[in-house]
Amino acid sequence: MQKRSFQKRSYGGGGSRPSATSTRRVGGRPTQVRSFSRRPARKVKQLDPTLFVKAAIRTVETKPYEPSVLFEQMPLMDLLKRNMKSRGFTHPTPIQDGSIPKVLEGRDVIGKAQTGTGKTVAFLVPMIDKVMRKKTERVFILAPTRELALQIDEEFRIFSRGSGLRSALVIGGANMSVQMRALQYRPSFVIGTPGRVKDLVERKAIDLSGFGNVVLDEVDRMLDMGFIKDITLLLSMLRRDRQSLFFSATLEKETREIMRKFLHNPVTVVIESRKSAESVEQDVVYFSSPEEKIETLHEILNQKEVVKSLIFTRMKYGADKLATELIRRGFKADAIHGNLRQSKRQRVLQAFRDDRITILIATDVAARGLDIEDVSHVINYDAPESYEDYVHRIGRTGRANKTGVALTFVESSRR
Q: In whole angstroms, what is the distance from residue 317 CA to residue 186 CA?
């Protein structure tokens, strides 16, 4: 890849005002955000510009979380413990430490924690243990996006290896006939997205009345995406004597209402989150024209410290267009969004995990639930529509006690 000549800058944490002669300004006070896409963009509510500038908090010594009990000390089936140990799971995270014992007791659980805190293990492990002990039990898991459902299914296969338990993944964008055949085997776990599950219920391919366990992951996101009617309908079809586990990053009024309606005397486990990731350097990048915007992005991506980057655009068209342009410039890039076939989305994500591509351009919906290691930079090429979305985006970097960088592009008329 041919590198462009430019003066190296620091893009994180300072928030200092650029000089009046700078044509590409970094830090300071942003104004209006503009999309790279030439299609008319939706009008987006202006966010407080100071939210995008914040230095990471670096602690000299981080004291690890001390769980009340290790996984090997939990009353879990030996096979399950061995599978977990083989994957390096020894010390529970806070949400796992608080939730798993209560689930094993048979309690309904509300888990409030951000993405990336280990929620999947918190509900999968005790549910797998339950079905291992009583093979007639069945578990129904709902997730807001295909990618998150796919990740849950992958984790299920790891933890249940050698148990003989089956799962069926029922998500949009995949072959429905294949999914219908998988359901004919009466799998112990059905993992899916609301729209596709509803379609299969209407086709009488699945009868939810036989499920005595339900998990809703990222409840708030499913409600934000307009699934409240589908969720309410599907939950009403389950056994009344079910065990219910609801996990959500927030507990807004609508989320609390659906929990009140469908949970019985639940235990609430709350893992407090910060306003935004403290391990992420946050800053803004000024541009004054579409041409300057793409050139500035080019220069940022050429910096040696930008190892693996996740770039957010607002529109599907913008994601495709930006990916095409970056590939033309010699970068290893690709895009994911809702218009891609599921098989294509899976291939792109796997290529990003394997470092065969180092730049992934995504829309917010397509990126829900993504858990990819070693993302050094999150770049908001288009502004997020809400501060919740901003926190969700930048949470993809700065993980596992590492410091990440989040940059937000903002348009400025200043020269």
A: 40
Residues 285, 102: Cα–Cα separation, whole Å: 46
Q: What's 28's DSSP letter?
A: S
Binning pLDDT at 50, 70 and 90, where does residue 41 land? very low
The pTM (predicted TM-score) of the whole model is 0.66
Q: How many C-beta atoms lie closer than 10 Å to residue 127's C-beta?
A: 25
Residues near 359 by beta carbon (within 8 Å), at least 6 away in sequence: 301, 308, 309, 311, 326, 331, 332, 333, 334
- The whole-number pLDDT of residue 398 equals 76
Q: How many helices (H) and strands (E) would you count in the chain?
A: 14, 13
User: What are the phi and psi torsion angles at 215 (to 5°)?
Assistant: -125, 130
Question: What single-letter amino acid sits at 297?
Answer: L
| Distances in whole angstroms, Cα of residue 166 to Cα of each of 82, 89, 187, 191, 249 | 19, 22, 5, 11, 29
Give the DSSP letter string of 339-354. TS-HHHHHHHHHHHHT
List phi, psi (to 5°) of 191. -120, 125
Closest CA to 364 of 20, 7, 44: 44
Cβ-Cβ contacts under 8 Å for 40 (sequence gap 6 or more): none
d(CA 74, CA 104): 9
Write out pLDDT tens, residues 346-404: 889 889 989 999 999 998 876 666 778 789 999 999 988 877 778 778 878 877 667 88
Q: CA 4, CA 26: separation in Å to the nearest integer?
A: 18
Distance CA 130, CA 2 (A): 56
Contact yes or no for 142/234 (Cβ under 8 A)? yes
